Amino acid sequence: MRVVVVTDSTCDLGTSAARRLRLGVVPLRLTRVGGGRVSPDDPEAVYAHQRAGGLVTTAPPDTATFAERYARALRSYDAVLSVHLSRGLSQTVARAREAAAPFGDRVRVVDSGVASVALAEAALRARAALDAGGSLDTAEAAVVQTGAQGLTLFTVPSLNHLRLGGRLGRLAHLVGTVLDVRPVLGFGDGRLRPLRRVRTDQALAEMLLTLEDRYGAEPLHLTVAHAGADPARLLELRAAALRSRLRVVGGRAQLIGGVIGAHVGPGMYALGACPADL
Question: Distance between CA 219 and CA 236 in Å, rounded?
């Protein structure tokens, strides 16, 4: 059976990168208030608008967009595995399932329970499972296992964008502002959760220590990501990860896309780890 894996633009893989990795990407809608639509592949336009004091909003793809993508894919493939960000963060999965219903068992929609680099990892693990000869069930299980066994941590220089987007409670924002601490955030039960609070200059070390405590010497795929085109900072993050006690056997470095960038703002960085062998 020939199966195509489709995800959405909250995976933070640009369209060209996703194509090279043999993933299809359905874009969420991204709008600069007072400035019009912007492509999820253009996060710098998002950050420029934010730096100027503007607000950027996001919305899930409409059902018709998913239906068109599925119909087009099924002209070349036997089935579609559609892997998306958590329903606790967006209505994207609900729209995908509505669109998939007329196609019956030829389209399977999976809620990854995560977003950003963790979603990319889940979609790539599904692709790998299919390439190894696995079935749709095997590929879906790979998504579930990636969410259960992986751990993605990130932190932001400012909590304002998360607060405005409703992703962070008022109390957490107040504590971060007053005490100059920032939360180390992760995913839990399909939602964004503050895992601990640390001083801003200690966040990276704390994130690496958390991953070291979780995985020990287990072989890992590690993703390092940064919001904003800052090659020096991305190299610095990657170097710190490679100097750590983590046993990194594969992974990637990437930029955060426009949709996630709209919620976190420039300067956010993330470390996403998952066992190499699930």
Answer: 22
pTM of the full structure:
0.93
What range defines the domain where residue 225 resides? 151-275
CA distance 22 to 7: 11
Q: Does residue 43 contact residue 257 with C-beta atoms inside 8 Å?
A: yes
Residues 98 and 208 placed together within one structural domain of the fold: no
Q: End of a domain among 148, 172, 195?
A: 148
Angle at CA of residue 275, ends 272 and 278, nearest 5°: 130
pLDDT (tens digit per residue) in 151-203: 999 998 776 766 665 555 544 554 455 457 777 889 999 988 888 888 888 99
Last residue of a domain, one of 91, 124, 148: 148
* Distance of alpha carbon 30 from alpha carbon 23, whole angstroms: 21
Q: What is the CATH number of the domain that holds 54?
A: 3.40.50.10170
- Round to whole Å and give the CA distance between 3 and 125: 14
Contacts of residue 222, Cβ cutoff 8 Å, sequence gap at least 6? 241, 246, 248, 250, 251, 271, 272, 273
Residues 85 and 157 both lie in one domain: no
